[in-house]
Amino acid sequence: MKKLLCLLSLLIRCLPLSAQPLNWTETAPGIWKLSVGKPEAYNLLTAAESQPNLSAISRLGKTAFPLAQNDIVATVVNGKTYLRFPLDRGEQLFGFGLNFQTVHQRGKILQLHVDHYGGKDNGRTHAPVPFYVSANGYGVFVNSARYITVYAGTAARKDSKNPPVAQDRNTDKNWSARPYSDAVEMLVPAEGVEMYVFGGPTPLDAVRRFNLFNGGGCLPPRWGLGFTQRVHRLYSADDVRKEAAEFEARKYPLDFIGLEPGWQSKSYPCTFEWDKTRFPQPEAFVKDMLSKGVRINLWTNPYVSPEASVYPKIAPYTGSHTVWVGAVPDLTIPKARELFWDVFAKDHIGIGVSGYKIDETDGYDYYLWPDVATFPSGLSAEQMRQTYGLLVQKQSADLFRNRNQRTYGLTRASNAGGSSLPYVLYNDYYSHEDFITALINSSFSGVLWTPEVRASKTSEEWLRRFQSVCFSPMAMINAWASSTKPWTFPEVADQVRDIAQLRMQMMPYWYTEFAKYHFEGTPPFRAMNLEPGFQAEVKKEVVTASLEENPYAEAVGKEIKDQYMAGEYLLVAPLFTGQTSRKVILPKGKWYDFYTGRFAGEGEVITVTPGLDKIPVFVKDGGIIPMMPPLLHAPKPGQKVDLDIRHYGEKPGQYQLYDDDGETFDYERGQYSWRTIRVERRKNGQWTGAVSAAEKGKPDTIGKVTWRFMTK
Ligand code: GAL
Q1: Which PANTHER family match (predicted)?
Q2: I want to staple 297 with a disulfide (CB 3.0 to 4.6 A). Which of 19, 128, 258, 470 is the partner?
Q3: How far is CA 102 from the centre of its chain?
Q4: C-beta neighbour count of 195 within 10 angstroms
Q5: Residue 174, exposed/middle/buried by CB under 10 A (0-12, 13-18, 19+)?
């Protein structure tokens, strides 16, 4: 009998996994869900508490299920879930979280694990989001707070529909140690899981559905898109005041200052209490800074010092292991949340603090809680690790939401479900090139990333880094250790001021593009691979063109890791230290130089030599960029701001400009407006522009409008 059972179980294990029919249900237009086995109650979406924006998803319309359903396999064997999704020949994959060195993910083996980034794209990263996007125009999301192992087109099954052909290594020089694989396979260490397929038809549509499913992208307050300086960790209130005054005097924009660990009486572990020697009167200090148009953002990590006043009360609700001898609050327990966030609500936000940088929720294994740690809620250390970043983002953001006040801050860890949380990822890794690749990859995962500037060896490096951070979700210097300032290199101080001011001038554009992230799910900074038409072209051109005759064909087939889209119209191609020129791939359609309006190219690879003071930026034909004067601080709610609207190229253009009070959640109750900007050519050949009127009773902050038709 025992033998028979053994045989039977062996048989079951060897059965083609496709034996069981799967039952996908469409939960919103173009989004299908499948539950297999017994999915765990705690997952990424419950941790993030995200709510789908169903009406926005509906606006994307219906689309067919993008995969052959019979080729998807999901089964539970011995307490683990095995998943298989088919792949076409030549189908490229993107995503699987915040990778730093690669954009193409087909052929990778990853273990998705929240961690600091250790220099390899192996799944251990600050946001190992279990969502991938296919160049064929769909996405797959596995909603599990477990360490998922991914074989992204690496494993070959005996029952594969498109098996690799055995080749003789002795005689065949095409023999490969990595035979062809026709599937993404995943192992989820849990007795079941829920997963989702997101339809397109384009890769960008799949990403939009994913972001809207997570509640839509975050809409920062206007000030969040200005400039931010994080000051040295031991700065006092007076040092901060002096620094803000210097920004003002030198005419560098500044919207918020980040205080690093020294504002707290103890850090690593933290007390969350003001250090009274450096900040004797926190409330007066914060108010004083606010009156100067500069907000305060506080660094913290969540590990509770035994000397924190909250320690004795929160101790019963903390994990078995410490981080730097600090207790780890189990933030899934309501009482722990209440106790933990109380001091934040009263002593920080209550006196006017505008946001947080929540550090150290990612890794590293040598100091974070180990996988053998236990938590009073009964959740495992693994589940905590995968979701702690989401928990702190959501819960801190709610403190602001309760006051009808928006925030925008920094987080070291995130995961799927977090798109709507107003936080930007950062780390200590500091490779300029890889920071740009991370910015590109963030767009496949519903997260934001800043290529922060810290210190530099040369003025060239300083300016190059500064240029790219001004074309990112958070324009920031993080001087916590270096004490650098924008003017640290006098020889490029003017150029740095120019680009910081350009960041401010572009605020109407950035703000609108973030509104689109929120209302339509379109990532404001995104990979070329999400550019409509770019992918289709890649395939077509690569197949048909001779590479020698058409270098574009060669280039687009490659991984694009160093140029990206910024908003609807802009293509940004940063330069790195040592480069004086670079190649830029301009997709089909005409492109124009952002600074001069001159024609730059059309569906081709160009070489640019921009000089040190310019970051190459190109505008699509018909592109409209609404700009404002270079204010040193973001406009206040209701403040009228003059617009300087630029038009590029030969095509007429149309742009929806977003407007609201810039600070509250009243937009969720309809207090916002979209104004149509139109640029057309008159019969006499002259360009003319118009802005539609604001609806009655809706926000209207547009002052005087001037037009700049950039292409002569
Ligand atoms: C690091 C963080 C830095 C800075 C520093 C302060 O973990 O990445 O940006 O905040 O801590 O100790």
Answers
A1: ALPHA-GLUCOSIDASE (PTHR22762), ALPHA-XYLOSIDASE (PTHR22762:SF144)
A2: 258
A3: 16
A4: 25
A5: exposed
Enumerate domains of the chain plus CATH numbers: 14-164+178-213 (2.60.40.1760), 222-514 (3.20.20.80), 525-620 (2.60.40.1180), 624-709 (no CATH)
Residue with the smallest CA separation from ligand 1 atom 10 is: 260
Q: Which ranges constitute the DSSP H helices of 149-261? A: 203-213, 237-250
Q: What is the DSSP letter of 361?
A: -
Percent of the chain at pLDDT > 70 equals 94
Residues 567-593: tens digit of each pLDDT: 999 999 999 999 999 999 999 999 999
Identify the CA nearest to 591 among candidates 646, 648, 527: 648
Is residue 98's pLDDT more than 50? yes
Please answer whether residues 542 and 556 qualify as being in contact, where contact means their C-beta atoms are separated by less than 8 angstroms.
yes
Per-chain mean pLDDT for the chain? 94
- Is residue 478 in contact with ligand 1, taking CB distance under 6 Å? yes
Helix (H), strand (E) counts: the chain: 15, 33
Task: Give every CB contact of residue 624 below 8 A, 6+ residues apart in sequence.
Answer: 569, 645, 646, 647, 648, 653, 654, 655, 677, 679
Distance of CA 194 to the CA centre of its chain: 23
| Chain position carrying tokens 């078995």 | 320
Judged against a pLDDT cut of 90, whether residue 17 lies above it is answered with: no
Structural contact between residues 554 and 604, judged by C-beta atoms closer than 8 angstroms: no
Using CA atoms, how far apart are residues 579 and 436, in angstroms rounded to an integer? 15
Does the CB atom of residue 260 touch ligand 1 within 6 A?
yes
- Tell which one of 260, 270, 323, 358 to mutate to probe ligand 1, the residue whose CB is within 8 A of the most ligand atoms: 260
Nearest CA among 465, 486, 400 for reference residue 664? 400
> What is the distance between the alpha carbons of residues 288 and 275, in angstroms, rounded to a whole number?
18
Q: State the pLDDT at residue 1.
A: 55
Nearest to 394 by CA among 418, 416, 410, 412: 418
Comparing CA positions, the residue from 247, 264, 265, 267 lying closest to residue 255 is 247
Any atom of ligand 1 within 6 Å of the Cβ of 452: no
Nearest to 127, CA basis, from 350, 582, 450, 401? 450
* Cα 115 to middle of ligand 1, angstroms: 15
Residue 43 has φ and ψ, to the nearest 5°, of -145, -175
Q: How far apart are the first and last CA of the chain?
A: 87
Residue with tokens 């160049």: 135
Question: Which of these, 645, 513, 652, lies nearest to 570 by C-alpha position?
Answer: 513
> Is pLDDT of 548 > 60?
no
234 C-alpha to ligand 1 centroid (Å): 13
User: How far, in Å, is the centroid of ligand 1 from the Cα of 567?
Assistant: 29
Distance from Cα 212 to the centre of ligand 1, integer Å: 31
Residue 54: is it exposed, middle or buried by C-beta count within 10 angstroms (0-12/13-18/19+)?
middle
Which atom of ligand 1 is least distant from the CA of 480? 4
| Of 273, 274, 289, residue with least CA distance to 239 | 289
Task: Give the per-residue pLDDT at 541.
Answer: 44
Q: Which residue has the tokens 């690669």?
A: 102
Computed over its alpha carbons, how large is the radius of gyration of the chain? 26
Whole-number pLDDT of residue 20: 60
The pLDDT assigned to 558 comes to 76
| pLDDT digits 0-9 by tens, 428-479 | 999 999 999 999 999 999 999 999 999 999 999 999 999 999 999 999 999 9
Ligand 1 centre from 464 Cα, in Å? 22
**Angle made by CA atoms 246, 252, 256, in degrees to the nearest 5:** 80
Protein residue with least CA distance to atom 12, ligand 1: 261
Atom of ligand 1 nearest to the CA of 410: 9
- The pLDDT confidence band at residue 3, using thresholds 50, 70 and 90, is low
Alpha helices (runs of H) in 474-558, residue ranges in sequence order: 493-505, 507-520, 534-544, 551-557
Residue holding tokens 């028979």? Answer: 4
Residue 31's DSSP bridge partners are 28, 198
- Cβ-contact 152, 182 below 8 angstroms: no
